[in-house]
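Slide 14.
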Amino acid sequence: MKTFKSIIITIFGFLVLSIPLVSVNAYAACDTTTDPNCVYTSSLPTTSANSATLAVILNIVFAIIGSISVLIIVIAGLKFITSSGKPEEIAKAKDTIIYAAVGLVVCVSAISIVSFVAGYI
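Slide 15: predicted structure.
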């Protein structure tokens, strides 16, 4: 159960940290550089990042997450090997391997989705 909580906290933390990467240009009512009658009333910040930049940043983040997941699988494998036949330690190691493998699949899927979407933007 503790591992499930840490997975939920990790996903929530990733979502919170990825909020600043979202472009806010869609909220601007008009362009003050081309329209002289435009009154810019929004206090939202703008960004100059394009989809390629965001794709590179997200690919780096997903690569780091994937590397951590592989490292967790290796550590859990070592715990499995050194469990000395204790059923509770074997179960904990198996659960850790399963959760890390699911995280790795989610990470690879996320990389694929980001690459696919960034190719069409």
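Speaker note: Residues 87-120 form the longest helix (34 residues).
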